[in-house]
Structure formats: structure tokens, C-alpha cells
Amino acid sequence: MTHHFVVCIEFREPTYEAFNAPREAPYTWTLKDVVASDEDEARAMAVSQFRSLAALSGVGWVREIEAVRVSEP
Predict the structure, then answer these.
(1) pLDDT tens for residues 6-57?
(2) How much is the pLDDT for 38?
(3) Mapped to the 3 state alphabet, what secondary structure does the chain carry?
(4) Measured CA distances, 65 to 2, 37, 70 (Å)
(5) Most CB within 10 Å of its CB: which of 7, 10, 15, 33?
(6) Is pLDDT larger for residue 45 or for residue 60?
(7) Phi first, then psi: what are they for 43, rounded to 5°?
(8) In degrees, to the nearest 5, what angle opens at C-alpha 58 toward C-alphas 70 and 9?
(9) Measured distance CA(43)–CA(6) in Å, rounded
(10) pTM (predicted TM-score)
(11) Can you tell me the distance from the alpha carbon of 63 to that of 14, in angstroms, rounded to the nearest whole number?
């Protein structure tokens, strides 16, 4: 059985922050309507997509995930 989830990833860009003002709060990226069998699968799918998009972004700094929150809509 599949469920729908919302996954919120909190992350930092330490390389960028080293050359600019540090942020008080991390950035957030939210993926809505993740269809998965459970929260663990939804988390893994969202993190994989986040890493893929980060690799395609064309920026030179690293994005470090600090937290991943999974909830139901």
C-alpha cells in the first residue's frame, strides 16, 4: 500500500556561508506529494532527489543536510 508524504529537508551551504554572512536558520527544501510505502522510503526518495538537483545546480558549494522531516499532508 502506498501513502502520500511531505518531506522537508533542512540544509546549509557552509562553503557559501564562509564567504558571506552565516545564516541563522538553515535553508529548507520541501517536496510535496511523495508517494511511498512508508516514511523511510519517502525520506530516501526525497534525499536522493535533493542530491540530484544539488549536483545539477551548477554552483560550486556543498549542501549539507541537517535534518529531514517527513509528514503526511
Answers:
(1) 999 999 999 888 889 889 999 999 999 999 999 999 999 999 999 999 888 8
(2) 97
(3) CCEEEEEEEEEECHHHHHHCCCCCCCEEEEEEEEEECCHHHHHHHHHHHHHHHHHHCCCCCCCEEEEEEEECC
(4) 26, 23, 14
(5) 7
(6) 45
(7) -60, -50
(8) 10
(9) 9
(10) 0.89
(11) 7
Instruction: Retrieve residue 21's grid coordinates.
Output: 554572512
Residue where the block lists cell 543536510:
65
Cβ proximity of 3 and 70 under 8 Å: no
For residue 58, the one-letter residue type is G
C-alpha grid cell for residue 4? 502520500
Residue with cell 511531505: 6
